[in-house]
Amino acid sequence: MAKQLLGKEVTAALNEKIKANVAELQGKGVNPTLCIIRVGENPSDISYERGATKRCETLGVACEKILLPEDVSQEELLATIDKVNKDDKIHGVLLFRPLPKHLDQAVIENALAAEKDVDCFSPLNTAKLMEGDKSGFPSCTPTAVVEILKELERSPPVPTISNTSISFKNLSQWVRITFAAAVISPIVSPFMARAVKNDAFCASVA
Q1: pTM, 2 dp
Q2: Whole-angstrom Cα distance, residue 127 to residue 146?
Q3: Which residues contact residue 198 at a Cβ distance below 8 angstroms, ignoring those fewer than 6 apart?
Q4: I need a labelling partner for 159 at 20 to 30 A (CA). Which of 45, 152, 165, 191 fits?
């Protein structure tokens, strides 16, 4: 019988690992801090923000928020990003996308420091991921999926089904890097029927 693999089954163990890492850093005088930058009032962004804030509280990670209006100018957003890039007290940045249409997302993506980008927003991190360079930061959702597979000791190959969303591209690549194997299929494909019969498969469908 098919079983849906849920994050809550591995959350407790991962929480303890992360809390230990946070405590170690705090013992060295470093207070891990995430900065969330949200433009506008997109309900899905607000929901994600709420979840991320709660996770930070659970893990002992500090969380700062910068909330900008929907009509923020590109200059103001770039200045905000430059400020957090230079702030040594901020270790990670989560910038929600897509951005409002009047903003040049390509320019903004390149403005965020890759070493602080925790959701593969920076093209540099995307390039590293595509090249199999683990020094880059993959997106949050694909990372969570891979951690679930690792904790539950699922073996490759792991078929990945998708309609070519951004998350899928990162997910399929991160699965390939981590398990050294991944079979990728579009959502409409003769392979799909075989994929869902595999020991484990990932679906990223918007």
Answers
A1: 0.76
A2: 19
A3: 157, 158, 159
A4: 45
